[in-house]
Amino acid sequence: MPQKFQRKSTVKAAIPTASMPDIIFMLLLFFMVSTTMREASGLPVNLPSAKKIEKLPGRRGVATIYVDKAGRISIDDKLVDVKSIANLMYQKMIDPVSPLKVVSLRIDRDVEMGLVTEVHEKLRDAGALNVSYSAKFAGD
């Protein structure tokens, strides 16, 4: 008489998913902590030196205008001409999400003063009167 083999129990193949929300939460937390937002790189400038400098309290609400020694002007990694500065700064000032508070000028030391004056006049036309000039620390 042939003997019949019977399975004692059926094994169910399943992936345990109980810890999945914990893993997702830890990955989300890791990326939130380790991710930094890309900042505008601007144009290469050789800043003038100063004996006394102050840092801006934060970067929120700060627009940076770069002017290199060739006379090119960059705002938010875009090359612009002098005439469009007033319009761009005005648009930044009326932005309801993050209105413009301070304009930081990073101007090369070899730029002619006439161009600096033009940029400053366009900022005045836009109503951006809180302007800071960037410089590198000269030391004692």
Structure description:
With 140 residues, this protein is of the alpha/beta class. It is 27% helix and 18% strand. The protein has three helices and seven strands. It has helices at residues 20-34, 85-93, 113-126, and strands at residues 49-50, 62-67, 73-75, 78-80, 102-107, 131-133, 136-137. It has a five-stranded mixed sheet, with helices on one face. Strands 1-7 form a two-stranded parallel ribbon. Helix 2 (85-93) runs parallel beside helix 3. The protein is elongated, with a radius of gyration of 29 Å.
- Total count of helical runs of at least 4 residues: 3
Mean pLDDT, all residues: 88
Q: What is the CA–CA distance across the termini? A: 105 Å
Q: Report the order of strands and helices.
A: HEEEEHEHEE
Q: What value does the Rg take, in angstroms?
A: 29 Å
Give start-end ranges of low-pLDDT stretches.
Answer: none
Strand order of the largest sheet: 4-3-2-5-6
User: Could you describe the largest sheet, including whether it forms a barrel?
Assistant: 5 strands, mixed
Strand content bin: 15-25%
Shape: elongated
Number of strands: 7
Helix content: 25-40%
Structural class: alpha/beta
